[in-house]
Queue: 2 jobs
Job 1
Amino acid sequence: MHIETLDRGAFSSALVKLSSGERFVSESGAMFRCSSNIEIDVTTKGSGKSGGLLGGLKRMLAGENFFFSTYTCQGEDGEVGLAPTLQGEVKVIECDGSRKIICTGGSYIGSTTGLNIDTKFQGLKGFLTGESISFVEVSGQGQLLVSAFGRIVEIDVTSALTIDTGHVVAFEDSLQYSAGKAASGWVQSFLSGEGIVLKFTGEGKVYVQSHNPSEFGSTIGPMLPERS
Amino acid sequence: MKHEILGNPDYGQLSVELGPGESFISEGGAMAWMSDRMELESRMMGGFIKSIIRKFAGGESAFLVQYSHPTGGSVTFSPATPGTVLHRQLNGDSLILTKGAFLGCTSDINLSVKFGGWKSLFSGEGAFQVVCSGTGDLFFNAYGAVLEKEVNGELTVDTSHVVAWEPTLDYRIGGMGGLKSTLLSGEGLVLNFSGTGKIYLQTRTLGGLAGWLSPYLH
């Protein structure tokens, strides 16, 4: 199995190349093309233990789809093309099993079968971040595919980094985060237009997106006619 | 202070590295990520009344944010829309920015809010403009790519494509040719710039995207 990302920039997509018998899992709806010898199955159980009704519901809390699509290659080699909804980059994160990866706000698009996809409840903290009350937690060895609005920037956090809500794509679980105020006081934080930010501490990688999708949405929203 | 612009023309961002004691001003809400222990202070642009007017009539945030760091650190800023981020060094000259174009500047740049006159109310470029002057670095953003044009004489531009211009240029509102062409060309109102100076135009408009999208919503 091999994942290629095509066309960097605003319209990037991924091409997953499978050999006979290999399987790949994606969120349902991400596939836009595949070879005829690929068998597609839609289930609530992708890989790992998070299946069934409960698994699906938990994923919905994490801003993902209830269902997974699984692609099994039969006979000769085959390929599956995946594309996210928003304009922006698609990135492959190589997971060596040493650290779990946490994906926020619907950034997960797919993963190789060696990876376990689970959800991690964030509670009030997740809700405050403007993301979701649950994040997708990826463990094991394999390749993880994420998407973003805009460019994806990989930052090595060595002690601490503050990130505005709406910009986090994924991060290694060796990092801790807390929701906090942007400035020293609450009044200043809200006047600054930043409000709540995420403070990451520890050591590890964080993947951020250059643009905030909900900020773009709320900029163009007032220009659209009212919903009838 | 060091700065770097990344991701143009699709997803432009501005990254600023501040030394101890240095400060930088940005539009409210533009920060994407920053060093720990960055100090933020909100300020109003041009006094309370003008800030409120700017907020409610100009559609921009009422507050500016001043960033500084006791031991030095960096901040990365993202405009609300995808597009291009531009840098302009001001050396005592000034630049006029249209609605939503201001991203940030060094602390010695003067920013003032100016009512563009009645003509600006009808032209679609926003009733309030931000006049930037002084000496320092100015950063602004546009939706789409940006065309920088030296005007020497006259230039006609579609109102919503104007991002910024030098005040040595004068403008008036006009139609495309007569009434018939104004109504039929799809251009609506245009701005006729005259004089000598630079103008910055964006290759797309957010209003254009919204207008195209509207009939498909239900």
Job 2
Amino acid sequence: MDKSFWGVMIMPTKMGKRLVGICSVAVTAIYTAGYIYTLPSVQAQASSVPSLSPTSNSTPGAAAAAHSASRSSHSRNGTSSSTSAKSGSSKSGTSTNGSSATSASSQSSKSSTKSSSKPPSKPAVKYKDGTYTGSGTNPYGSLSVSLTIAHGKIASVKITQWTMHYPQYVIDPQLPQEVVSMQTWQIYIVSGATASTYNFAQAVYLALQKAKA
Amino acid sequence: MMVDSEMEAPAKTGIQHTVESYLLMGTVVSIRVVGRGQVTDMHSAIKRAFEAMRFVEETCSRFAENSALRELCRHPGELMRVPDVLFETIRVAVEISALTDGVFDPTIGSALEAHGFNRHYLTGDTVNSQVECAEPVSYRDITLDETERTVLLHKPMLIDLGAVAKGLAVDLAAKELVGWDGFAIDAGGDLYLHGMDFTGEPWTVGIQHPLHKDAMMCWLQTTDAAICTSGSYERRSPVASEVHHLINPKTGKSTRGLLSCTVVAPLAILADAVSTAAFVLGPKHALEFVSALDLDALCISDALDMTMTDSMERYLK
């Protein structure tokens, strides 16, 4: 072991526990404080300059001095761009769920609902030979696949259309190959390419649904 | 080996799953949720999780003019009271800095900016903090007051919290998803996994090949853990191509010898910071550093050799 690095460091294993502790406390403290962010968010510490009232402080942000001390939940001058994520938000969450992801997510939830309503036993899946298409969409674009069944098995998967915001090589040919070798539409998370991974899985899933019919 | 029965997923009745992705923090962030219950409830939970992440970005980003971080950096030499999120994030960054004797250092913002890591990922606009760093700075030039929640920057500096804030965002998102049977948050290399995936198994995660985006180096299977990868292959300096975004504050240069370092830890903020520090420490010290902290890591060298801590093997699939 090279002495130059740890040098005078003491008992690193204890350091590990300490770090975990510091991180847990930090995450919990931030979560508990709530996600209120108003501008200006940073102020000179008025108490350090007792002769000045908070509002006559020299820093531009001084007017909001009361804000961070009390963690008050009201926002100032309409500059707040986040909402409380605590108690009230579970109620408001459902009513404002009109994000751009809705189309993709409703589609995906549909497919999951469909498959989960099937009996839990192990049905022998039989695919009819032929070529089937499917597509997947999310806020970053869409892709389509063409899937060929030969002798009841997935013989090939080809990406036929791609409008994702990043290049196709991120998942192609790795994922199509995986579908063929694993004989399933279920593919795992690819770090850094999840959006297209999911689109791809969805597209293959839909194509396989057609192959079953 | 996967068999035909697995085509009929989800394997368990009544188990729903869904996924949503957004562009956040310079990357595509995807959250998937698995569990019993209404899919609409899942979407509400995911929405809250994204709000938490957006909050971290708004407050801690070096790229956003209006962030609390940038505001703090406009006031060197003054005792500043900052939002809790910024205070705690700086505190974690300073702790890791002290632990690594400055190999990890959040005051590296100006150096990153000078190397051309200064483009906002959404607008593409060049960000210039106007912070003039005439003299060398380090984490020792930051003073934190725990009771008053104040930060004092002793010199002009540009703080970069990139190596902790993304992890923090993932951890906060995880808090919003508590209660579901399983969830996976993927913020481009920073992952947090909980419970089961939609087949009822622990989550399986591919570790990307550093040179071939279409290939995996290996697969890990775990749950209730964070996995973060720091790699030199994602961000290259537009100014000098041999420079990547993981710069050693002590030398001002980017570390050679490793292509990526993946750390498994109980929290993403920890995994993120430790993987960054380990990467910068380089091939000689990375694993020693991580195992001394009782965490696990997997490193991929320039020569594509894979090395890992002893207890890392249990995650390999």
